[in-house]
Amino acid sequence: MSSSLRKLIGTVILVITVPIYALIAMVVAVAILPGASVWWQLVFYLVTRLLWVPPAGMLILWMAKADRGIGA
Known about the structure:
The protein has 72 residues and is mainly alpha-helical. It is 78% helix and 0% strand. The protein has helices at 3-32, 38-51, 53-64. It starts with a helix and ends in an 8-residue tail after the last helix.
């Protein structure tokens, strides 16, 4: 697979999944956090803020992978 095709696929996946993840995190926050202490809210938002980073980083590494040469 060419690097330009990987970049296109990865970009489409990120553009679709990041807003969906944000909506899911908001729904969970509305369901769980009312009445919770400030500290639990802080922990929830810190975790959900950082939870999407490793999968997105792995996808970006896959997108940036160099093309294989013709005999490789």
